[in-house]
Design a protein that fits this description.
This protein has about 400 residues and is mainly β. The chain has one domain (about 60-370): Jelly Rolls, CATH 2.60.120. About 10% of the residues lie in helices and about 35% in strands. The chain is built from six helices and 23 strands. The longest helix has 20 residues, at about 5-25.
Length: about 400
Amino acid sequence: MLPMDGKQSLRGRRRLLGALAASLPVAALLGADAPAPAQPEPDASLSGELFAQARLRNYKNLRSSSWDRTGGNADWVSVSPGASATLLDVTGAGVVTHIWFTINSPDAMHLKNLVLRAWWDREPSPSVEVPIGDFFGLGLGEYFVYQSALLAVAPIKALNAYFQMPFSTAARITLTNDGMERVRNLYFAIDYASLPGLPADLGRFHAQYRQAAPCRAIVSNGDNLSGHDNYVFLEAAGQGHFVGVTQAVVQNEDGWFGEGDDMIFIDGDALPTINGTGTEDYYNGAWDFGGQAFANLHQGAPYIVDPERIGGRYCLYRWHIESPIAFEKSIKVTIEHGTANDRADNFYSTAYWYQTEPHAPFPALPAPAERVPRVFAVGGDKGAAEPAS
């Protein structure tokens, strides 16, 4: 018979062995090799965003820039009147991801006189043809600082674009000087990725400039259901999606210019597929913006000077990246200029979209002098303006 302390010790060892038996496989207790515990399968429902920064890439980052090929610090190119600078000229598949410029020019209107063009896959006509200021949302030829999801202007004159611009066989981007002064210093950087190939379901990036200076005022009974006389941001044929617009306005009349509604026609619809309620509403503001400039990721009016008066100036943008406006056959994006198009202000715009090729011909780019914003005498009951000198 064991002493009391021995009995207690034995009972303690039995409890320990029982706990081990409950927590370990029998094979482990007998000293046999046990299989490793099974690892849980990854949850297929986990969002890709959770791993977006960690996912490995299979492309090569490259850049075309104005760096000094001698190794010095003359990191610019000059562009004479009538000449063009080639900014990117590559073959193979890839995607442009970022464009940056800063410009030193004695031409006060160089943002209107320098024209940016881009061709994808050796197409015969450019998919991008826009005065450089308008492309970056500076539609009145003046610099100002703002930030949005796709375009940004950083201090003091740094132009940035973050559109994705894919190409399968070649890409070419140029800048042409339509002005009368030499660009002394054009600094640029175009970041792109070289790829083994592209998916088949990618549209090509497009940007198109239009203007009406001034818009033609219509005398009507105030009804406009068809959008017949609206200002046209974009008219395109093919399959694609509209991602947004930048617009600049010079008022030729007193009062609020923005009582016009946006009207978007998709795939040949006779009446607007999408109807808006006012210009400031389309740009996701309200009540004439209260005359206050603002710049958000998807929408903004970052430049407002002398609102609701003759000579008043606005720059606006709206990005549809939360839900690009898709079309299978065609799209026509329009907006009224005043209620039922009863105002004659100046509109300047750039539309941005993706589509299959070939694209429809672009309207002819207005002559350089016609692109320069100025006030026109238009008369009417909202006030008359004197022509700019």
